[in-house]
Amino acid sequence: xxxxxxxxxxxxxxxxPLAYLDKDKKxxxxxxxTLHEMALDHLTQPGDVERKDLYRIFVYDCTPLSKKAHYPxxxxxIDFSGTPxxxxxxxxxxxxxxxxxxxxxxxxxxxxxxxxxxxxxPSVLEKxxxxxxxxxxxxxxxDFEPDVLQKGVDMKIGLDIASVAYKKQADQIVLVADADFxxxxxxARREGIDFILDPMWSDIAKDLHEHIDGLRSTCPxxxxxxxxxxxxxxAEKEKASPPSPAAEAVETGTSDAEKVTRPEQASPRExxxxxxxxxxxMLDSDKEVESSSE
Length: 294
Description:
Rossmann fold; seven-stranded mixed β-sheet; 35% helix; globular
């Protein structure tokens, strides 16, 4: 019997730059193709019977934010339908629908009109404000992000898994996600389904192992040293080639505005650690990442 694969696109996009260092995360066609290839790799795994029969690849996501709002500090207007993130998601969805045996299932973003629309970015809150490095009065528009939640995605995943299990449309299910999947996994296993979890090398709770039949990730497993090398190489490249004025332009808030792109660089702590390891001859270490990036 065939294999059915279920993928939480938001989780995949979060893990993508940590697993595929040399691939452009801003290229929707490349990202969609990589998702498809990663899913198909589950059909030919060492130690498992080769599975040539694929039922479907179900991909779950939400339509991008399209409302208009005003920044919390400057009060400037912004149309989210014209942001690079919205453009990427829409093109990403179109690319997915063109791929063989891919089914795109869309949820919705929760309407937060009755709540404060903006929130301080977790990285700013935890690493700067709570640590005392910055004060609230120093916050700028770049320190905030829309406070939106996906709705309907987890429910659709659970319902589709139940449907596939009850109708005996597959005898193996692969789930690429990090959300609470225990009820769906229990139901599928009671129906005789071989339930495989693919966390893309991120950590999962120890008690979840009793609810799955196997743990398997098909994306590359990147070592800590690889991440540091990549960040340092990227930082050196950006120092040699300063960004163009267009990349430094402030977002205008119009529908065709582009967000300011800030290069990801190695932190001073990582640079010191890299130099220390280099001096100690530890650059060939195979210590691997077992959790999400900071």
